[in-house]
Each structure stands twice: as structure tokens, then as C-alpha cells.
């Protein structure tokens, strides 16, 4: 390898910023040099990963982040993914050789400003939602973060020295608090029997047989033992939940999507290879009866889909494409799967039809990668008139995010729901929206919570009934659910301490108050992009270590052949002559 190192040094001295006729020769030599490094480095891959794991495990245990077994399991799952992401991005001839100017540029940077201005160039003057029709309504049930634990054990410790408790190995002593039969609002996930009762409750008490009803199921189904999982293990819960929903014979329309916990390792999905395609195959087959063959096949290929219901379209996407904890995006975060490009076309079609659109996914955009979230925000702004709702989960707490236009005015809303699981320290919750059937604008929603203490005291013979904890309009003193109305609610936070407590209490699913300030809640509710939240709080934006190595958005440059270049010059010359 020494000859390549010497060659690299000599040519770096001789080369200027411009490339000469020697380009092909030196470019070829650079590629050979990089390939040689890759071969040597590949030989040491396992040793490097092993060393990194050892260092990370030692730090995790020494800093008492978790007990050693948890550190070891989680780090063993994640390290190879992080290493591969960095390796594929930076130890690549298409990156290194243009960087040292031995080869022409292979990629060009895609600037955020260019994307946003291009999307908004034909934005309508009026993007305000229409007036509510009010002659008929439909209903949308939203359930998220079910997280059933198939190993949940009544009578065990609900708090322990691992990230998930209420299991056989955590024996409770006589005077210790103990896990309840129907669940525990502690460091525990949901017993499957509680979910079975939930489905029965929907059928008997929630679903109105005289109303068109949708159920948005936004993923995260497996228990939180992330340090000892596997591919089949992570899919098992989703399969069982789907079967329970199906056996319930609810007579409603399901809109399902996966969460970040369905992947293995947790959060990790590789969009640049087919290694994780089995996940889409599994879920497309699992949900085929709900989606239909055509949509299921599209979902299998892309991880997102659209379903139309007359004047209403739902776009359901896999939010792993914007998940900051998806280390595979280190390879290339540029619009994975082409979702944003596809969505623009879907929105254009809906605009021509005057068709309302709802977005739904697991992770809400203020928890997404900022460059992705800003581009998505631009799409929502351009089509704000037809985007009438956004429904997400992930937070295990209830709140909303307002989307702002380029002038800082509220123009859209994302509704984030609480979790059905009790993890961590939550009451099992879900909600039901009442929606104007013609305009598809939400009129109100009802938040349901389960009184676990009550039903645990009754025991295994209980028939579970969720209580309506509140309805949105009454709880927050509003008359409508338009963006401007929700913005007006947030402005009241600085004058109404009781309103602050309500938001705080509800974001904890009714289990207590965190002490959130009016300023924090105002910023949290008013921003759909993470950086904007921190700026609103008066914080300086700080990069974590991943941002220093995280690549920007890019596009491969298509160079014309000499023949094509000559033809293009000739055509330009002819046009000038004609003028």
C-alpha cells in the first residue's frame, strides 16, 4: 500500500483545483487506492467493531447509564450499524476522490433554500381552510404505542434495575409494590389481555355503527426490551395485535403504519439495500385484507401508501425515513424511498380534485431530522388548504404541534396522541376525533383513559371500560380546531396557570405534573421543527456528535458525453442564430 500513499502525496502537491487531461489516469489511481484501503479495512472490520463495542460497553457501565447486561445487549446491536453508516458514506471513492480533486464531482449538494422556494413558487394566495359544513360527521379513532408485553407477570416488581419491569425475573417481596393484573403505570408495558379488552370496548362503547369510522394505528407494538430482541421477535406482537383486531370484527376501516420499534435493531432501517425489506413484506401481507392487494403491494415496495375515500385521502408513511436515531441514514439522508417527491405528486392530484388530505405516521416531525422536517413543512405550507389533519404517536403523551408558514403564521396542525401502553408511568389512553364529513376538518376529539387502579382491585373478572378524560374544546376553552384557534390557546398559557397545568397533566396521560413552564409548553405546541423549538426557548443550537458526521442532502451529477455536449452546443448556437 506504500506506493499508493506516496502517489497520493505527490499528486496532491502537483494538482490544482482544475482537472487536466490526466484526470482519467489519476481518477483511476485514486479508485484503486481507495479500494485497497477498503480491502485492508474490511479485513479488520470485526476487530474494529469489537473494540468500539468494548469501549462503549465500558463507558456505559462505568457511567451507570444502565446495568452491564443492558449496555452490552444494546451496544452489540447498534455498533455495527453506526460503523457501517460511517464506513459506507466516507470510505467511498465517490466521496474521497472528488474531495482531493483527483476525480470530477460525483454529487452536488441539494440546498434546502432551493427546495423550499421551488415548492412554494406557486403557493395560492388563500390557504385558509373552508367553513365547516356541519351536515354530517365521520369518526377517527387513533391508537398508538400499544407495546404489548407477552412476558408481563402480575405480582412482580413494577420498578426494577432494568428499562423494562413487571416480569418473572423481578420478584417482589411482601411489602413491595406489585404489578397489577391489567397493567401498571410504571416501567412496564401492557398485558395482552388488556389490549383484548380494549378491542372489545371499542366495539361495545366507542364505535358508532351509524357513522363511517376509521382507525389510525400508528405503530410501536413490541415491548421495550430493546437490548435482547430479534427480527422475528419484533414482528410477533404486531401479528398478534392484527389478529385480535381482526377477530374483533369491528366493521371499520383500518389505516395502519409501523413505528420505530418494529425494526431490529430498534430505530434501524436500511433504505439503501434490501436487508430490511422483509419487514415491509411481513407487514404488507399482514395488512393485505385492510389495504387491498394494490395498496399492499405498493406499501411492500415503498413503506408508504395513499388510500382514497371519495373526498378524503390518507397518506401513511414510515417515519424511519426521518428518524434521527436511524443510523443507516448516515449513508445518505436524501429523501429515502423518494417519499417527499411522491407526496408532492399526490398533493397535486388531490388539489385538482379539491380532496382533503390527512398525513399519519408514528414519529411526529418535531422529532424528525431537521433538514427533512423543513422540506416536509414546505410541502404542508404549499398545500395547507387541503391538508386538514396530521395524526402521530411516539410521544406517549398528548399534545399538538402547530405548523408555521415562512412568515411565522400558523397554517396547519399535527395531533400527537398518548399511548395505550403504560410505559413509562402512563395510563392506557387513546382518542376519538369527530370530523366534519364534507370538509374533513376536525370538530373535536375525546381522550379516553383507563382507571388501572380501579380495575386491578376488581381483578381478572373485570370488564374494562375506558373513561372519557376530556374533550378538546371543553378542556382548552376553544370553539373551533383551526390553526389560528389553537394558536390563540397557546397565547393564553402566559396568563392562565391552570391551563399550563392541564397541558402538563395531559401530556403525562393523567398520572401527574412534570412542572413544565408556560414558555416551554408554548414553544413545544407552536413548533413542528426541533431547531425552532430550541430557538423559541432562547437556546443556542448545539450540534451533537452525530451532526458533525451526518452528511447533507445530495444528488448524483449526470455528466454528458462528448457527443451529447457537442450536440447541446450546436443546438444553442442554432437558437441564437434564429433569434
TrEMBL record:
Species of the source: Paramecium primaurelia
Residues making up the signal peptide according to the UniProt record: 1-20
A Pfam family matched in the record: Metallophos
Stated name of the protein: Sphingomyelin phosphodiesterase
Single Gene Ontology MF annotation: hydrolase activity
Source species, domain of life: Eukaryota
CDD domains: MPP_ASMase
Residues covered by the Saposin B-type domain: 23-107
Family under the similarity heading: Belongs to the acid sphingomyelinase family.
Primary role: Converts sphingomyelin to ceramide.
Residue segments, region Disordered: 560-579
Record keywords: Disulfide bond, Glycoprotein, Glycosidase, Hydrolase, Signal
InterPro entries on file: ASMase/PPN1_MPP, Calcineurin-like_PHP, SaposinB_dom, Sphingomy_PDE
